[in-house]
Amino acid sequence: MLDLPHARDRMVEVQLSRRGIHDREVLEAMREVPREAFVAPGFEEFAYED
């Protein structure tokens, strides 16, 4: 099973921070919002892919 909190943190680091997004509030919001809640059941593992 995918560690979703870890995937969320990794997404913030790889997809946002390394692309020049450094606003603390934006990064914190992206760490707090569970993207898996917005995908169809069974697709949660893909919620943090680019």
In short:
The chain has 50 residues and is mainly α. The protein contains two helices and no strands.
Structural overview:
- The two termini are 19 Å apart.
- The chain has helices at 4-16, 24-32.
- The chain has one domain.
- It has 50 residues and is mainly alpha-helical.
- Helix content is 44%, strand content 0%.
Task: Please write out the topology.
Blueprint: H1 4-16, H2 24-32
Helix pairs in contact: 1-2
Characterize the main sheet: none
pLDDT averaged residue by residue: 92
The number of distinct helices, counting runs of at least 4 residues, comes to: 2
In total, how many domains does the architecture comprise?
1
Query: Strand pairing plus helix content: what structural class?
Result: mainly alpha
Shape descriptor: elongated
- State the total count of DSSP E strands: 0
Distance between the termini: 19 Å
Share of helix among residues? 40-55%
Backbone CA Rg: 11 Å
Low-confidence spans: none
In what range is the share of β-strand residues? Answer: under 5%
